[in-house]
User: Fold DUF6263 family protein from Reichenbachiella ulvae.
Amino acid sequence: MRKLTNLVLMMLFAISTLHAQKTDLSLKLKEGESYSQITESTVNIVQDMNGQKMNMTMIVSGSMTFKVKSISKEGFLMDAEYDSLAMTMKMPQGAMSYSSEKEGEVDLLSGVFAAMTHKPFEVLMAKTGKVKEVRNIESLWEDAIGQFEGLPEAQKEQIISQVSKSYGADALKGNLEMVTAIYPDKSVKEGESWTIETKLEAGMSANVTTEYTFAGVTSSYANIKGEATIVSVDSDEYIESNGMQVKNQMSGTMTSDIQVDLESGWIKEASVNQDLKGNTIIKENPQMPNGMTIPMTMSSEMVIRDQQVIMIK
Assistant:
């Protein structure tokens, strides 16, 4: 009986010790190695235009490669490049698609996307996934747009303004951190939580506060789950859209379920879901002397993978 009791006590001790063990969830990338990130996001937008609902679906996808050039106490200095970029917009009036992979006679935006691929720029990323700096990205898309001769200067400026809001240094920093700034600054045990603050700059300025929890491990990956609140920053900054000055004021929530490789810390697979609600505000202009406030809801589903998966239809 005593032996049985001792055995049970030893098993309970082993189990408690196992659960008390801490895991290093930081990035542990290797110099000279390349890491990929394939993202596809489906965004559903509903706007209330004077009592009439207008639905729009936007599908944005892209593939990036990061090659580690050097490692320091600041983190990982990487050459990053787009392998592909694509966007589809579905509206009541019809659908429009743009892609860097489009062949034959291409539209202007598809041409810009194609010109932006396979052109390296630098990303400095901390071991916690925080993006400290994005370098040389502006020259990348300015050169891409500048290659189209004969474009009126006003049209070039408009395209540069629109592209910079989605692919400029600040926008790219925020977009990357949405899926990379997920790691604690110390080793954690299963069930432990930590909070990360990030900022979005694509389309609107917003503060994102996320509580991540270490949900457990398998033989090859760690599972991290996140619960976030998103609140737009109330500013007077507008962006140009269809010849009008527009800004979005939104707030909502985001949930994430992330699998990271135990050896490198790089994301193997993740799903991120957002639900936002707020207003689109159109500034006073000759067409709308009083401006307009349009109620809007937005839901999105994003999937991230670390390698290309061939879909068989």
